[in-house]
What does this fold into?
Amino acid sequence: MRYAFLALPLMTLMACEPAPEGEPVTRTRIDGQPGAASPSPSASATASGTTQVESACRSIIFEDTPLTHCLATPARHTIAMDLSPASGAPYRSLTAFSQGRNASTVAFAMNAGMFDDEGKPIGYFVEDGDRLQTLRTSDGEGNFHMKPNGVFFGTGETWEIRTTDDFLANVRDRPAFGTQSGPMLVIDGQLHPEFSRDGESRLIRNGVGVDERGRAHFVISNAPVSFGKLARFYRDELAVKNALYLDGNVSALWNPSTDRLDTGAPIGPILVVEKKEQPVE
It folds into this structure.
């Protein structure tokens, strides 16, 4: 099983923040420190000659660390897990995954939990209602077993994050999608008890949190970040009471609206957020 991680170089490609038509998209600083806004990646021109980027993701800086925050809302998006093409081996990369998808329907996609040497999930995993891996409650080494760990799951427009023990005790119906990972970043509004404020272990990391409105917040760092800082971002800036770490070192994002397609070490399970067709007004 893969638990030991090596730090990656700084990711330079960053997603963008939505802005009104005709206005430039800017990188936002949210920690109260001064900082000049910088231009976003270029957008395509519209028929009127103005530019517009429709993206579920925005680039931000938190405590001097660049992050990308992607927001999925039940009214506008669906969430699903995807491990491999039909009757095939795991994709192992967002590049391979993207080749079989209609980019115009994808809001974004991201790696979705820890995996073995073949790219298969080591914890609970449900894809399209099929349980491909059972819930793992055993003790062990590595980030996955830094308890409490947890499960991100959902059906239809209801998305949740629960600790593994809570999930085992209270969830009776199999969800449409689910992935188990660890550690939890935030548990009922509190940071994981084993995190220091800004520990020495710093990697490119990503996670997911669900807020009180049922929206899912996906965050990937664009520079090495500690567990403590990533967890504080969820708690203090996003006001998320429960957030789950997805992985580190291999963390990657595909954001078709900005042509961001991260490459690097092989990944395992993938989550995809797709756009719902919006009614014509």
In short: The first helix runs from residue 94 to 98. The chain has a mean pLDDT of 84. Residues 126 and 262 are 24 Å apart (CA to CA).
